[in-house]
């Protein structure tokens, strides 16, 4: 008697999970573009940080 609400809840969670995964795949090109931008921004920041650290090290 109490199993049916639990099964409904599990089924609902499964449907939400599937819908979320489908939405993730739909946003894939945007996510890839954002990942490329973040990788580029991160590389630029690391380069600037390295130059700054080396300049501070030689100034001491």
Measured as a percent range, the helix fraction is over 70%
Instruction: Choose one word for the global shape.
Output: elongated
Order of helices and strands: HH
Average pLDDT taken over every residue: 83
Number of beta strands: 0
Report the sheet with the most strands, covering strand number, pairing sense and barrel closure: none
Overall tally of structural domains: 1
How large is the share of residues in beta strands?
A: under 5%
Structural class: mainly alpha
**Rg to the nearest angstrom?**
24 Å
How far apart the termini lie comes to 76 Å
State the assembly state of the protein chains.
single chain
Report low-confidence residues grouped into runs of 5 or more.
none
SSE inventory with pairings:
Elements lengths: L2 H24 L1 H32 L1
Comma- or semicolon-separated keywords:
single chain; 60 residues; mainly alpha; 2 helices; 0% strand; elongated
Describe the structure concisely for a colleague.
This protein has 2 helices and no strands. It has helices spanning 3-26, 28-59.
Protein architecture, described:
The protein is built from two helices and no strands. By secondary structure, it is mainly α. The chain has one domain. 0% of the residues are buried. The mean pLDDT is 83.
């Amino acid at each position: 008697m109490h199993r049916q609400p639990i099964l409904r809840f599990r089924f609902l969670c499964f449907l939400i999970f599937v819908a979320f995964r489908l939405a993730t795949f739909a946003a894939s090109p945007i996510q890839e573009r954002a990942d490329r931008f973040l990788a580029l921004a991160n590389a630029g920041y690391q380069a600037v940080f390295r130059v700054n650290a080396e300049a501070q090290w030689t100034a001491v």
